[in-house]
UniProtKB/TrEMBL annotation:
This is TetR family transcriptional regulator. Gene3D superfamilies: Tetracycline Repressor, domain 2 (1.10.357.10). It comes from the Bacteria. It comes from Streptomyces africanus.
Amino acid sequence: MTVANGIAVQAAGGATRDELQRVADMALRSRPPA
């Protein structure tokens, strides 16, 4: 939830799609395996 909110704030602030995608990719890589 924290990452999603952070992405929303960054998007509202004018971040590009590529920048937002990098944040999402980093967050997903840091998750522990299932």
